[in-house]
Amino acid sequence: MKKGSETKIIKRSQINLNPCNPKVHTDADIKQQKANIKKVGLIGGIQWNETTGNLIDGHKRVMSVDLIQGYDGTPETDYDIKVEAVDFDEKTEKEQLLFMAKSQDPIDYNLVAKNFSIDEIDFKAAGFTEQDTEQIKMLQDDLEASLKDSGMDDFSEDFLNEPIISVTTPTPMTELPNIEKTSEEIVAEHAAKPKMTKEEVKDQKQHCTDVGKKRKEDIDNFIFIDFESFEQKQIFCDMLHMEAANSMRISGSQILGLL
């Protein structure tokens, strides 16, 4: 049996809310969690990867305690918090992040498709079925198609958050940093890039907002039908005079034409 987690007391400033977290916590969710913590205290292990500083589980609880403690990221508001520390590489961290999210709450498959590559991690190890993985792959294919239609290959939010130091002609952004590069290499590459003016950053953000809106509209046009058996799928296809295949993708206009 491999070594598990180790209970530690660390500073809140050592914790990063995981940027790939596939769960969406509403203000109402956090408010409810905050009330419960104030009533009975912080219960349950907050899983934290010491290697990256990222949370694996416990985002809602940490955000709720932040509100209680008045934490704003400054040393004056920093506080001690108990965590279950693990030592994972980035691949294992992402797999466990998905596993914990999927085993506890409904997750946003759109966020999973956006932040996790089929080729990068083992979705089976993260608790996903082959059907789940196929659905994610379909969403990723459509996100990629939306990007190509918009004239973009990919989009890095980090690029827009770089400090504005000088006024130069920006280099067109066409790709994300290689996922296999070290964080030091990525930081060095970003530092070497020409900086954008405030107006250029504003225009770039607006463009990316428009692209994101189009992505959501494209994804919202999908309906996924989950049959309990191939026989049920066969009956459905027979009703529409279609041939049932193991993996099917049919346009909405085609379905409407068969009704």
- With strands numbered from the N-terminus, the spatial order across the biggest sheet is 1-4-2-3
Question: Into which percent range does the helicity of residues fall?
Answer: 40-55%
The dominant shape is globular
- Please provide the ordered H/E string of secondary-structure elements: EHEEHEHHHHHHHH
Brief write-up:
With 259 residues, the chain is α+β, with helices and mostly antiparallel strands. The protein is built from ten helices and four strands, in the order βαββαβαααααααα. A hairpin with a 5-residue loop joins β2 and β3.
Topology:
Elements: E1 6-11, H1 27-40, E2 47-49, E3 55-57, H2 59-69, E4 80-86, H3 90-104, H4 109-115, H5 130-149, H6 157-160, H7 183-192, H8 198-220, H9 230-239, H10 252-258
Helix pairs in contact: 1-2, 4-5, 5-8
Task: Give an overview of the whole structure.
The chain is α+β, with helices and mostly antiparallel strands and 259 residues long. The protein has 3 domains: 6-135; 150-220, no CATH class; 225-259, no CATH class. The chain has 10 helices and 4 strands; from the N terminus they run E-H-E-E-H-E-H-H-H-H-H-H-H-H. A 4-stranded mixed sheet has the order 1-4-2-3. Strand 2 and strand 3 (55-57) form a beta hairpin. Helix 4 (109-115) crosses helix 5 (130-149) and helix 5 (130-149) packs across helix 8. Mean pLDDT is 73; it is low at 155-181.
Q: Can you give keywords for this protein?
A:
four-stranded mixed β-sheet; 259 residues
